[in-house]
Specification:
Layout lengths: L1 E8 L9 E12 L17 H14 L2 E3 L4 E13 L4 E10 L4 E4 L6 E5 L5 E10 L7 E8 L5 H15 L3 E7 L3 H7 L5 E8 L4 H6 L9 E9 L9 H9 L9 H5 L7 E8 L2 E6 L5 E2 L2 E3 L6 E2 L2 E2 L1 H20 L1
Antiparallel strand pairs: 1-12, 2-9, 2-10, 2-16, 3-4, 4-5, 5-8, 6-7, 8-9, 11-12, 11-13, 13-14, 14-15, 17-18
Length: 328
């Protein structure tokens, strides 16, 4: 077992090119009415799968600009996959931001190689997947993140606006996917590979021992991580279940932990392994999956971006697992 102790000051460091997947649900309802409709048969048997196919074709011909968000969006028709049998559409979207002036500097020479104006777009490729099951009132959207960059806002806003234009009396909703049942089922198996305890400030007495007296306000968070060796698992299933049933209980009843302030009010999460894929469960969020999945170490990359065939395979397996769990 390997134990890591991290102290972060002022800011959280996020890996710039870290590749993650976000998962959202897709639901359609009639305005001012309760209940959701089957995605393949709403408003005179219209089909969301067909709607999105047409939308993708339209937005691959020209770049869409959203003036409010100062973002662009364009589907890359040459990199896409349409699986009508399984009702899955996946591909790559080019998206960028504009509206601010900046300089692009070569990190080796320290010289400016391009001066970006307010009208220039810094375009990046992002993966997406849409799954619209037949005879079901819930679909799924998978979107790639690259470090702090993502396309959730521009993507969902574009789809919502175009859907409203075509079906004025209907509403399409996108919500973060979370599954409490799936998380609970995982704790009946040996799957925990990481435990993380985190609190958002540093007690004055601890800061003093770390020679940080007077800098308590500069500390963003203190974090303890316990990480298993590759192929091994942590025997914390019963402890996690107990903590979930009583979130005010201390995760560890150890004096040293108490002195650092790691009590029931500390943010806790676990990372679990499912068939070689890592997923994070937030224990302080009703014990549900967060809507993102870390795939950075398993996806193939080219020039810092995921290879389409690789991320497409991972995403389709993820959606298959999620859909199977929901339907069971």
């Amino acid at each position: 077992m390997i134990i890591f102790f991290f102290l972060s000051i002022s800011t959280t460091i996020v890996m710039a090119n870290e590749i993650k997947l976000e998962v959202y649900t897709i639901r359609i309802k009639e305005s001012y009415k309760e209940g959701y409709l089957s995605l393949d048969s709403f408003f005179e048997k219209n089909d969301f799968f067909s709607f999105f196919s047409e939308l993708m074709t339209s937005l691959s011909k020209d770049m869409s600009i959203n003036e409010y968000f100062k973002k662009s969006l364009q589907f890359k028709s040459e990199t896409s996959s349409i699986d009508s049998g399984n009702r899955i559409i996946s591909g790559i979207i080019d998206s960028g931001d504009y509206g601010t002036e900046s300089s692009i500097v070569n990190q080796k020479t320290k010289e400016e190689v391009y001066h970006k104006t307010e009208e220039d777009l810094e375009v990046k490729p992002f993966y997406f997947l849409i799954h619209s099951p037949k005879d079901f009132d819930m679909g799924f959207l998978v979107l790639q993140r690259l470090g702090s960059f993502g396309i959730q806002t521009i993507f969902t806003r574009t789809v919502i606006d175009l859907f409203k234009q075509k079906y004025s009396n209907y509403i399409i909703e996108f919500s973060p996917f979370a599954s409490k049942k799936l998380a609970q089922d995982l704790l009946n198996k040996k799957s925990i590979t990481e435990l993380k305890l985190k609190r958002n400030n540093l007690p004055p007495d601890v800061a003093n021992k770390l020679n940080l007296k007077g800098h308590e306000k500069d500390i963003q968070f203190i974090e303890i991580r316990i990480v298993s060796k590759r192929g091994k698992y942590l025997d914390y299933n019963d402890k996690v279940k107990k903590f979930v049933n009583n979130s005010n209980a201390a995760f560890f009843e150890i004096n040293e932990m108490d002195k650092l302030g790691f009590d029931g009010k500390s943010t806790s999460s676990i990372k679990v392994d499912i068939g070689g894929s890592s997923r994070t469960i937030d224990l302080n969020d009703s014990f549900q999956f967060r809507p993102y999945f870390d795939i950075h170490n398993e996806v193939d990359k080219s020039k810092g971006n995921p290879v389409f065939s690789s991320i497409d395979k991972i995403s389709k397996k993820l959606i298959k697992d999620i859909y199977k769990e929901i339907k069971s």
